[in-house]
Write a structure and sequence with these properties.
The structure holds two protein chains of two kinds.
Chain A lengths: L2 H13 L6 E7 L1 E3 L5 E3 L4 H13 L5 E7 L4 H6 L7 E5 L5 E6 L7 H11 L7 H6 L7 E7 L6 H14 L4 E7 L4 H6 L7 E4 L3 E4 L4 H9 L8
Parallel strand pairs in A: 1-4, 6-8, 7-8
Antiparallel strand pairs in A: 1-5, 2-3, 5-6, 7-9, 9-10
Chain B lengths: L8 E7 L3 H12 L4 E5 L23 H14 L4 E3 L2 E7 L2 E6 L3 E9 L3 E3 L15 E2 L2 H4 L7 E5 L3 H10 L5 E5 L9 H9 L3 E4 L4 E6 L3 E6 L4 E3 L2 E4 L3 E3 L2 H5 L23 E3 L11 H21 L5
Parallel strand pairs in B: 1-2, 1-6, 2-3, 6-17, 8-15, 9-10, 9-15, 10-11
Antiparallel strand pairs in B: 4-5, 5-6, 7-16, 12-13, 13-14
Helix pairs in contact in B: 1-2, 1-7, 4-5
Classes of the chains: A alpha/beta, B alpha/beta.
C-alpha cells in the first residue's frame, strides 16, 4: 500500500468513529471566471480542500466544513485576522477561535487533527480537569506550534496544545503552523528547529516537550493538581 | 484515542513511548491484561531515525514509519496511550499508585521503558542556539538546511546515518569526531566514505558554538573557527532513569536499571526494559525483546497475586 493510500485508510478508519457533529471553517481564495464560475486562486487551496474532503466523506455526515473565500467574507476575515490561505479555524459556540491550522492535516498530522475534531465535538479530554483547576492562573494565551511534515515529535505537541485550548473555555488559542509552507513565520521567530512552541510570543520551548512542561510554562509555576 | 479509565487498577502500566513500551503493551494486551501506556514522547528516539534497515521483516523504513506501524498495531488492540509523565510511584498494599502531573493511576505491576535521551555537548552556545541552528534531530530539522553547510558531531552509527540523511539536501556535511575512525556499522561507514557531500574531520572537538540570531560557526579545540549553518549533535544518549532511582530501583554506574533475564528489577512488580536498562547492545529489536519478556514476567507476577476482579 502506498503511503498516500495508507494515510487515506487511517483517516477513513478514524473518522468513522466520530459520533458527534463538529464544524470547522476553512478560508480559501477564489476568483471568478469570465463564465461566472469560480476557481480556487491559491495554489494550495485545491489540494487542501481535497484532503479535507476525505475527512468529511468518511465522517458519517458528522463533520461540516464551511469553505469561506477571504474576499467574499471580508468582515469575518478581519474579525479573525485571516491574513493567509488556506487557514482552518475551530470556532466555539460563542464565536471564540480555539484552534487555527496553517498546516495541512496530512501524514503525521492526521492524528492530532482527528483528535482535535473529536475533542472539539465533546469527546473526553485527558487534560481538562487539570486545565480547569488551574484556569485562574492561566492568562489569555496564544500557543503557536511550529511544525514540519517530517518531524516525528510535532504531532504530539500539536495534539497536547490543541487539547489544552479546547479545555480552556476560550482562554487558550492554539495555532499550528507548518513553517516549510509558511517560511516567513519561521524566519520571523528565527526558528530553525521543530517542534518550536511559543507562548504569547514570549516563552519559547524548543524540541519535544511534554504536557507538563507546556503547562508549567503557561502558568509560570507548579501545576495545581487535585485528584 | 481510547478512553482512559482512571478508577481502574491496571494489571500493568507501561512507562515510555518507544518500541520497547509498545512491544511490552502489545504482548500484555494479548495476555488479556488491562494495560495502559503513559509516555512523554510517543515513538522514542527511533522515531528520529531517517532509515531503519535492521528490523526483521521490514527491509527499509523510516523510524517514524516504523512507529506508525507500532501505533496501528497498538490501536488495533485498543491499548490506551496518554502523553504524561509519572513523578512518583508508591507501593500501597498489593498495588502501586502512580502520580503524574495530571492524574493518579493504580497498577498491580509496572514496566519502566522510559528509554534514553540525547546527550548534550555542554559547550557555550549550545543552549542559546537550540532550535536556531543547534539540533538533535536531523529528521525533524533537516529541511531547514537545503543547500547549506552543516556539521554532525559524533562518530557513532547514528551520527553516520544523520550525516547520510542530511547529505541528501545540504551542500556539505562535516562529521566532526574526536576519535581516529568513525564507529558506524560497516554498511553505513562505506556509504559515508562514498558520499561526496560528506567529509570527516577526525580528532577534533567543538568547544563553542557561535552565531548571531542563528548559528554561523563552531570553534574547534585547536582554536580554529569553522563556518557552518547548522550543528547536529549525535554523541550518544543517557538513560531516563531518574524516576526509577527515586523509587529505589537499582541502577548501575551509568544510571541504567539493572534487570534480570526476566526483565525484573530489584523491586517485585516493577520490571524494566530497553534503553533504560543495562543491556550492552541497545537496538529497537533488543528493546522490544526485553519489553516482551517484561510483559510475560508481569503477567506471571499478577497471575500469582490471584486478584479477584
Amino acid at each position: 500500500m502506498s503511503q498516500d493510500n495508507r494515510y487515506r485508510e487511517i483517516i477513513k478508519r478514524e473518522m468513522a468513529k466520530l459520533k458527534k457533529p463538529v464544524k470547522i471553517r476553512v478560508f480559501t481564495c477564489k476568483k471568478k471566471q469570465p463564465s461566472g464560475s469560480q476557481i480556487r486562486e491559491c495554489m494550495d487551496c485545491g489540494q487542501f480542500m481535497a484532503l479535507l474532503r476525505i475527512y468529511k466523506e468518511n465522517s458519517n455526515g458528522m463533520l461540516t466544513i464551511k469553505e469561506m473565500c477571504i474576499d467574499e467574507n471580508p468582515e469575518f476575515a478581519q474579525r479573525y485576522d485571516i491574513s493567509r490561505v488556506p487557514t482552518i479555524l475551530f470556532i466555539d459556540n460563542q464565536g471564540r477561535e480555539i484552534i487555527r491550522y496553517l498546516a495541512a492535516p496530512q501524514g503525521g498530522e492526521i492524528q492530532p487533527f482527528v483528535q482535535a475534531l473529536f475533542t472539539f465535538a465533546g469527546a473526553p479530554n485527558y487534560y481538562e480537569t487539570t486545565i480547569k483547576q488551574n484556569l485562574d492562573r492561566i492568562q489569555p494565551s496564544t500557543i503557536k506550534v511550529m511544525i514540519t511534515e517530517t518531524c516525528p515529535y510535532c504531532p504530539q505537541v500539536a495534539q497536547i496544545v490543541n487539547d489544552f485550548a479546547i479545555a480552556s473555555n476560550g482562554k487558550i488559542r492554539s495555532v499550528i503552523i507548518d513553517i516549510i509552507a509558511n517560511p516567513d513565520i519561521g524566519q520571523y521567530y528565527d526558528a530553525a528547529g521543530v517542534p518550536y512552541t511559543i507562548i504569547n510570543d514570549q516563552k519559547t520551548l524548543v524540541g519535544m516537550v511534554g504536557a507538563p512542561e507546556i503547562m508549567k510554562a503557561l502558568i509560570g509555576g507548579n501545576i495545581r493538581v487535585q485528584y | 484515542m481510547e478512553n482512559i479509565d482512571l478508577e481502574k487498577t491496571y494489571d500493568l502500566i507501561v512507562l515510555g513511548g518507544g518500541p520497547t513500551a509498545i512491544g511490552c503493551a502489545i504482548y500484555a494486551a494479548r495476555f488479556a491484561m488491562d494495560v495502559l501506556i503513559i509516555g512523554k514522547t510517543f515513538g522514542g528516539l527511533i522515531a528520529t531515525t531517517h532509515v531503519v534497515e535492521n528490523y526483521p521483516g521490514v527491509t527499509s523504513i523510516s523510524g517514524q514509519g516504523l512507529m506508525e506501524m507500532f501505533k496501528e498495531h497498538m490501536n488495533s488492540l485498543n491499548i490506551p496511550y496518554i502523553s504524561d509523565e509519572i513523578r512518583t510511584i508508591e507501593k500501597i498494599h498489593d498495588h502501586f499508585e502512580l502520580h503524574s502531573f495530571f492524574q493518579k493511576f493504580e497498577a498491580y505491576s509496572i514496566c519502566i521503558a522510559t528509554g534514553s535521551e540525547r546527550k548534550k555537548l555542554g559547550v557555550p552556545g549550545e543552549k542559546n542556539y537550540a532550535g536556531k541552528g543547534v539540533s538533535y534531530c536531523a529528521t525533524c530539522d533537516g529541511p531547514f538546511y537545503v543547500d547549506k553547510v552543516v556539521c554532525v558531531i559524533g562518530g557513532s552509527d547514528s551520527a553516520a546515518k544523520e550525516a547520510l540523511f542530511l547529505a541528501q539536501n545540504v551542500k556539505k556535511v562535516y562529521i566532526i569526531y574526536r576519535g581516529k575512525e568513525i564507529r558506524a556499522e560497516p554498511i553505513n561507514k562505506k556509504r559515508v566514505y562514498e558520499n561526496d557531500r560528506i567529509e570527516i574531520i577526525y580528532e577534533t572537538n567543538i568547544v563553542e558554538i557561535k552565531g548571531d540570531t542563528t548559528v554561523s560557526s563552531v570553534i574547534f579545540d585547536n582554536g580554529k573557527e569553522f563556518k557552518v549553518d547548522g550543528v547536529f549533535i549525535e554523541i550518544g544518549s543517557i538513560p531516563n532513569s531518574d524516576l526509577a532511582k527515586r523509587v529505589g530501583v537499582k541502577t548501575n554506574e551509568k544510571g541504567e536499571i539493572i534487570i534480570s533475564r526476566k526483565s525484573e528489577t530489584n523491586i517485585p512488580g516493577i520490571f524494566a526494559a530497553g534503553d533504560v536498562a543495562d543491556a550492552p547492545f541497545k537496538q529497537a529489536i533488543t528493546g522490544v525483546s526485553e519489553g516482551v519478556i517484561a510483559a510475560y514476567s508481569a503477567f506471571d507476577y499478577v497471575k500469582e497475586m490471584n486478584i479477584e476482579y
